[in-house]
Amino acid sequence: MNTTLSPALLAIVFAATPCLAQTTDRATSVKIDHIVKEQMLANKIPGVSLAVLRKGKIILLKTYGLANVEHQVPVKPETVFQSGSIGKQFTAAAVMLLVQENKLSLDDRISKYFPDVPATWKDITLWNLLTHTSGLGDYPPEIDLKRDYSEVELFASFKNAALNFQPGSSWNYSNAGYVILGILIRKITGEYYGDFIREKIFEPLQMTTARVISEADIVPNRAAGYRLVKGELKNQDWVSPSTNSTADGSLYFSILDLAKWDAALHTDRPLTAASRNKIWTAARLRDGTKKDYGFGWHLAEYHGRRLVFHGGAWQGFKTFIIRFLDTDLTIIFLANSWETRDFKFARGLASAFYPAFALPDVKTIPDLDPQITSLVRRGLMQVALRKPDEQLFTTDCRVAMLGTEGKQIAQALNAFSLPVAIIHSSELIEHKVANNRRLHRYLLTDIGSSLSLTLELTTDNKIASIKMSPL
Hints:
19 strands, alpha+beta, 23% strand, 471 residues, 31% helix
């Protein structure tokens, strides 16, 4: 069966449902409707749930489209979506609650709690795990996401993997680090991290539908996640129950749950002002350089506004939260499609309130060769880390990427919210063949800036050159 969004279905998808009292002006509300519908149409997103808050109070709450395409169930405020990595901020909050209770210190080395860690881990602290400065990376390649693992087995796999750098010397987004934080919470409290978060955060804040993912349990109002395969809508890929229950982003919640969370972040419960300040303080590396990431939050200052934000991407879902600290404005959206351009979507929503965030007028084109795009993304990540691989780059290009030219591109890329901006926000804007070389031009979209990158590829799929142009 060829499952696409039919005209009748699109009529349902684009029927926005306003919810609760709204105090945004009509012009802004209309802008938001236009932005949401444009993104849903461009990327075939079945459903979206959206909230805008001012000082923790909802000023706009809308839902769009379908939570379940097969049964044509519309999204509503109670619809439950998967969190993706937005869940990391709850793991970080749980750690800070233990710090508030003097049961942990951010300066504690993890070897204090896990004496059998490798010698190379001796300097890894809790702060390193929270800020992605531990040297750990993603799940090791031998981990099969469709197989169940115990916490002991996962931890053993992480310990066998080499560190990417000395702890505190650099930054690398690490799902493994947050999985370990969840294991640590059990070590300290005797409770599974999900139970601890439920008792200490979800229940006190009356986040009544927030919980750890479970495919076995009956979960009212659960949305389905989707992806596109050759333009056809498909259900999300299946992963094992253990993979969907770790502390790196395996939560369910509704837009109403997240509205309550945002309201709590304006108060001293459950997190004190001192804890919130630490969570939103940029990481400082050993050489004194700063990385704009706190504890489960990206940090930035764009167009004269300070903001903290994070996205989530997992199993056919994309999620995003932005908090403008100086104006107490928060924007949250939940979407049930892997194709959602989350940074682009979030920035478009921000522009409805702050025009300086407007997206560049650049047309994207269909990406008919995702394998090349995947290769390009790997290459850009290597350039950002100043580690171009000779298997991926021509000799001349590799030399250039290790030199001044590569340093400039790396600095521009590292100004983005890596690695998610590269992985989830790069879009093709041009493709042509010239002189037996293929030219691919991509648009990268972060919350406050955009970048055009043109890559030249050889016939054997090596990157021969990279040219950068700010937009």
